[in-house]
């Protein structure tokens, strides 16, 4: 029985986990610019999808095998990035103590966690927008917030997996046709 994906794809998936971790820590935790992480995930997965087949040394073989390896490596990368996105969001959501600097109006008076996040949104003038979608208190805000985060994570998974497929397709089109002589 043959493998569904090549060993190179498994190795590339591990590289994708490292890449996703680096992106998440860099652009969600250290320098919180979330859209950069959304952009780098799929772009990095293109490289991972290509690398999965390059690492396997796939010179010949069916397109299905090429795309399966790229899909696997891209999906693992996307799942890792989404999991880290949700984990970092959870840290900030449940540990928010209401701190704001003086330029923003000073600290908020609220209970640590969801109450402070909700108070922060209200203090930033987003109360009418939240009320328009049915948010009326901390409990409904928490449900709304995590629903949005799960949707974002799903989009990250889909786009990163598709990026892996694009990388596999690029490899299939550009792969070397024969091994060079030793």
The parts where pLDDT drops under 50 for at least 5 residues are: none
What's the Cα radius of gyration? Answer: 21 Å
Helix content: over 70%
How far is the first residue's CA from the last residue's CA? 31 Å
Largest sheet: none
What is the number of E strands? 0
Order of helices and strands: HHHHHH
Beta-strand fraction estimate: under 5%
Q: Rough shape?
A: elongated
Mean pLDDT: 88
Structural class: mainly alpha
Tally of individual domains: 1
In DSSP terms, counting alpha (H) and pi (I) runs of 4 or more, how many helices? Answer: 6
Q: Can you walk through the features of this model?
A:
The structure is a single chain. The protein is an all-alpha fold and 182 residues long. The chain has one domain. It is 73% helix and 0% strand. The protein is built from 6 helices and no strands. The chain has helices at residues 7-30, 34-55, 63-95, 114-123, 127-132, 138-174. Helix 1 packs parallel to helix 3, helix 2 runs parallel beside helix 6 (138-174) and helix 3 packs antiparallel against helix 6. The radius of gyration is 21 Å and the shape is elongated.
């Amino acid at each position: 029985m043959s493998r569904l994906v090549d060993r190179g794809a498994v190795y590339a998936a591990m590289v994708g986990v490292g890449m996703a971790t680096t992106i998440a820590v860099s652009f969600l935790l250290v320098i919180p610019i979330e859209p950069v992480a959304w952009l780098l995930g799929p772009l990095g997965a293109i490289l991972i999808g290509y690398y999965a087949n390059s690492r396997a040394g796939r010179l010949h073989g069916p397109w299905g095998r090429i795309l399966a390896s790229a899909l696997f490596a891209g999906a693992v990368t996307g799942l890792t990035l989404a999991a880290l996105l949700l984990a970092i969001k959870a840290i900030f959501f449940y540990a928010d103590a209401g701190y704001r600097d003086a330029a923003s109006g000073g600290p908020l008076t609220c209970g640590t966690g969801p109450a402070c996040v909700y108070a922060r949104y209200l203090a930033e003038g987003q109360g009418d927008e939240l009320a328009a979608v049915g948010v009326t208190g901390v409990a409904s805000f928490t449900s709304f917030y995590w629903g949005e985060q799960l949707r974002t994570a799903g989009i990250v998974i889909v786009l990163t997996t598709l990026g892996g497929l694009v990388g596999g397709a690029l490899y299939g089109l550009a792969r070397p046709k024969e091994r060079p002589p030793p």
